[in-house]
Structure formats: C-alpha cells, structure tokens
Design goal:
Blueprint lengths: L4 H15 L6 H8 L4 H5 L11 E4 L5 H8 L4 E5 L2 H13 L6 E3 L12 E7 L8 H10 E15 L4 H12 L8 H10 L2 E9 L2 E9 L4
Parallel strand pairs: 1-2, 1-4, 2-3, 4-5
Antiparallel strand pairs: 5-7, 6-7
Length: 215
C-alpha cells in the first residue's frame, strides 16, 4: 500500500519533530507503535557474519550502536539530529562506552573512503535511496563490504494489539513488499543486492544486503 501524498507530508512533519523537538519521546513512540517489537526487529541487523568496523546511519537514540559496542564491534554512527546525538551519547556513557557518534547527514559522511566492512541502517526514511547517500555509502565501504538495511514486511502476531500495529504500518506505508524500487537504485550504483526475510515471533522483517564488489 502506497500512502497518499497528504499522508506522506504529514508523516514527514511528524518524524521530523519526533527526531528533533520531541526526540525525548522517540523510544516511547517506537515501542507503542510497534507494540513492543521495535528492538526485536532492529536486532535482525546483527548477523553472525557481520564484520567490523561498522558504520550505523541514522543512529537515533543509540540502542543498536550500544549493542554493537557491547558485542565488541568497532563501530561508529552518525545522525543529523543534535537532539538524538545527545541522547545517544548519554546512553553510551551510561553503558560504559565513550560516545562514537557524529552529527552529520548520510549524504555527506565526514569519514575516509574504504573504511568500513559494513554500513547499517534500520527503518530509514527515503534518504537511504538518495543518490548522494548511496554514493557516500559506496565511498566509505571497503571492497567486499556491504550495506545492510532493515525494514518490516508484515506483522504476524494474532493478538488485537498486533493486528492494530499491522494495520497502522500498512496504512502509513511502513510495511509491505518493497518491490523493485529498492533493488534498482542499488544495482545502478554497482552494488550486488539481496533480500532476506527474517522470521521473528510476531513479524517478518526484511533485511536488504547490498555488497560492494571486489575489483
């Protein structure tokens, strides 16, 4: 289901303020709208064969970055929101780690080329398929490195709360079959894309993997 143009504008307005003015409420909104599944969905990024160093795009409040550091990955992250970077930095310090998060846009990553074995983004907005973003991801990835993007195909829980979440995600266009609009930009950039479906207890999570070929 593709959301209506007015709904797209409303969602952009909502998420802009959720990421900035009301960043303090982000975790509560994410938990409520996903019916408590948000962190479980996010965990699909942590593959057993994930290699260091890792760059996370759009780190938000820093949960996944902290997971990476706790699992002894060399990891850094970036986010354009000053409010989110402050929240993430506090979370890392409380977890016993020095903050490794930069305030920057994915379209202009302030890091050297050929640095990362993996770039991860969970539930990103449309910026992830922006050509400038893909060019920057390509630049910072080592040959053989990969981009990993996590999304939701469908919520499968049978409880009333799960059915409500499933309707909400379909109505807002945040779930569903991605079709070719994901594969084509990645292929055009030179990536070798693959789509995996990760079955979790109450959802099917999409895991896009796009490998940068070795010359």
């Amino acid at each position: 289901m593709n959301p209506k143009p007015w709904l797209v504008r409303l969602l952009r307005f909502f998420f802009h303020h959720l990421y900035t003015t009301f960043a303090w409420g982000y975790d509560a909104v994410a938990w409520t709208t996903s019916m408590g599944q948000w962190r479980t969905w996010q965990s699909a990024a942590l593959r057993k064969d994930l290699q260091s160093p890792v760059l996370e795009l759009g780190a938000g409040p820093g949960h996944l970055l902290l997971d990476l550091l706790r699992n002894e990955y060399r990891a850094v992250a970036l986010d354009a929101s000053p409010q989110m970077t402050r929240i993430a930095a506090r979370r890392l310090r409380r977890g016993g780690h020095q903050p490794t998060i930069l305030r920057a846009r994915a379209q202009a990553i302030p890091l050297p080329a050929h640095t990362f074995a993996a770039v991860i983004s969970t539930f990103p907005s449309e910026y992830i398929l922006d050509r400038q973003t893909l060019e920057e991801i390509w630049r910072v990835l080592k040959p053989g490195g990969e981009l990993i993007v996590i999304g939701v195909e469908r919520i499968t829980g049978r409880g009333i709360h799960d059915r409500l979440a499933a309707w909400l995600y379909r109505f807002t266009g945040q779930a569903g079959d991605p079709g070719d609009h994901w594969m084509k930009p990645l292929e055009a950039m030179g990536f070798i894309p693959d789509l995996e479906r990760v079955r979790q207890p109450r959802a099917v999570v999409l895991r896009f993997r796009a490998r940068k070929p070795i010359p």
